[in-house]
Amino acid sequence: MEPQILFEASFAFDPFWLVGPVMFACFLGYLIRGIKKARKSEKVEDRFGIVIGLTGCLSILIFVMVLVPDKIKTYNATVGAYKRGEYEIVEGYVKDFHPMPYWGHDQESFTIDGVLFAYSNYSDTFGYHNAKSHGGVIMGDGQHLRIGYTANNKLGNVIVYIEALQ
């Protein structure tokens, strides 16, 4: 029987990334509306919309300028490394499996041939992070796997490939 691929790292769209552009559009609308209102009036309170809109737009731009480069770096360190073949491989049986409870507040972890892997559904990574309690493919001790992973990054050993062996 041929080995079965259970996971391969790839780009996964996260709907959370839509929050920034939507908020930016709202603040931009508020800014434009504030400018139009301030042109028609001499009242100071009618200029408040300009302050709110400008502050919101600038805050989101700064947030994006800080966050996006980190996401690109994390993507290149995981998915990029996998696609370039720059990852380690370990093969063996899952040992010391520690499942993550469904409600979180812990990490799922296990070792294969002395290499520790820890992850959580609530972590922000491009590598494997799907706990057994949420439908993950790592089931427990004794499972025979071949795992590709990137080492020495800020998240520890990030799984980029999982293959079930018979």
List its salient traits.
166 residues, alpha+beta, elongated
Question: In words, what does this structure look like?
Answer:
There is one protein chain. The protein is α+β, with helices and mostly antiparallel strands. The protein has 2 domains: 84 residues; 70 residues. The protein has 2 helices and 7 strands, in the order βααββββββ. The strands form 2 sheets. A 4-stranded antiparallel sheet has the order 1-7-6-2. A hairpin with a 2-residue loop joins β6 and β7. α1 packs antiparallel against α2. The chain is elongated and about 75 Å long. The mean pLDDT is 89.
Q: What is the number of helical segments per DSSP (H or I, 4+ residues)?
A: 2
The residue ranges in which pLDDT falls below 50 over 5 or more consecutive positions are none
Please state the oligomeric state of the protein chains shown.
single chain
Strand percentage, roughly? 25-35%
In brief:
This protein is an alpha+beta fold and 166 residues long. It contains two helices and seven strands; from the N terminus they run E-H-H-E-E-E-E-E-E. A four-stranded antiparallel beta sheet has the order 1-7-6-2. It has a three-stranded antiparallel beta sheet with strand order 3-4-5, with no helix packed on it.
How are the secondary structure elements laid out?
Blueprint: E1 4-8, H1 19-40, H2 48-84, E2 88-93, E3 95-98, E4 108-112, E5 115-119, E6 144-153, E7 156-164
Antiparallel strand pairs: 1-7, 2-6, 3-4, 4-5, 6-7
Helix pairs in contact: 1-2
